[in-house]
């Protein structure tokens, strides 16, 4: 049976590129790609078993963690991360008009944030408007002489628009990590283990004690990030990635979880998986 793979649509988004790459790396045979309107809709498609897999961004090198993805992983704790790729992100300013007449710039909030300095210097009077995706933004500027969108250069040919400027990222090395989510727990090659936990108490040194366990077992944290629990002010969920070597660290990771559990109100293991850097050129 062909696997259904959800991603943030419509056609032409970086998420679609990631969906094709991750499906190939996962050896999916002739997958059926399902574009969704909004990131939360992508995650719900796997959470409610409407698709077999979902591709979502989880972290950007400039803006940090993608909060919708992190919050959903905590909420739907039966979802696993099976694989990840890091894609370089190069944004273009796209329009039907000329850059001198642009007064509104549309894009996904992450893309707008990744180009905020460029916009401030080159279009200081322009209003920024958020959309569900970069692809949606490009569709919305068709036929307008005063609107421009931030998105992938691939969208220019798809929508028949013009490139006004490229690249417009504030940081040349801009990249995003995309993950493949499913209800399956996959074992195999892995270089990252991801998990999150909430502490039983907010006492002095509670978080330090948990982090000490990670250090004592020889793990390098490649990411640590907090998100509000949404229950009360000052209560947080801690998201952690640690580097692992499948030959030496898998047993230690199991020991780490056992050590952390007595300190935690809740601990969610998102899985051990392989993350690879991809060159799109």
Summarize the structure.
The protein has helices spanning 14-25, 39-47, 67-75, 109-114, 116-122, 134-140, 154-159, 206-216, 250-260; strands at 4-8, 32-36, 53-60, 64-65, 80-88, 92-95, 104-107, 127-130, 147-151, 162-165, 175-182, 192-199, 221-228, 236-243, 264-277. It is of the alpha/beta class and 281 residues long.
Describe the structure.
With 281 residues, this protein is α/β, with parallel strands linked by helices. The chain folds into three domains: 94 residues, 3-Layer(aba) Sandwich (D-Maltodextrin-Binding Protein, domain 2), CATH 3.40.190.10; 74 residues, Periplasmic binding protein-like II (D-Maltodextrin-Binding Protein, domain 2), CATH 3.40.190; 86 residues, 2-Layer Sandwich (Alpha-Beta Plaits). The protein contains nine helices and 15 strands. Strands 1, 2, 3, 4, 5, 11, 12, 13, 14 and 15 form a ten-stranded mixed beta sheet that branches. Strands 8-7-9-6-10 form a five-stranded mixed beta sheet. α1 links the parallel β1 and β2. The longest helix is centred in the N-terminal third of the chain and has 12 residues. The chain starts with a strand and ends with a strand.
